[in-house]
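FOLDING PROBLEM:
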Amino acid sequence: MSELLKNYSRQPKIYLKLPSEGRFYSQNPTEKSGSGELPVLSMTAKDELIMRTPDALMNGESIYACVKNCIPMIDDPWEIPLIDLDAVLVAIRIATYGEKMKMTVKVPNVEDEELDVEIDLVNILDSFRGKVWDPIIKFNDLKLHSAPLKFKDQNLYEQQNFETNQFIAMMRDNTKPLEERKQEMSKVFDAISETNIDLVTNQIKAIELPDGNIEYNNIAIKEFLNSLPVKDFEIVRSALTERRKLFELPKTNVAVPAAMQEQGAPESFELPLVFNQSSFFALK
């Protein structure tokens, strides 16, 4: 960009404190800022167009490109831990469209009734403050050193899930012999099981023994976890799930007008903030 126009280019609209505080990245992005907060720029017209492109959304490239352009201190957006991803996207939305987001939602217990609500996204960001991922999972006399999944892990899982659903739909083709379809379906379900197990094992980075020795080898860790009885494996999975839930987006309490309550609607209901990139980044 020319020096003449540099002062008129995009400037940071807000500053984001990552819920992880920069932990779990190959290179902590907060070390680049003196305050520990990352400057967030608004999306460009190109960013907005990409975020509405189905193919780019499917393979994660749209989010990668948008984060790269709006929060340049994050060198590799694929490295973003999932406990940071929601906060990152909310911050970009605020920087682009403002602190409020309007939504039209269906009212429970009544037919054909909708309500316009306004979400305060700053409150959403504030809800992450003070939350910490506890890396140590105590398991029998072992200590499992854990880390949250990253954006690249989620993206790979979602792509595999999409491809699997497409394959299952194709297997409904009755022109193929039944036995052949059974064999192919068996392979698909084996792949699904392997992926679900990997989502757990990939979050365990080291295993500490009672004598202080630590196993860091990924293959050895995966073999150990795969050899556990199902009950013990579920203990590990549940511990990781509890840590992830701590960083879920909070629900918004919506008050219902008296006229709708008279039709059977509740006094209020909780509205989850669900990310659909094509609509979440639409200007409203």
Remarks:
- Residues 136-245 form one domain.
- The two ends are 31 Å apart (CA to CA).
- The chain has a mean pLDDT of 87.
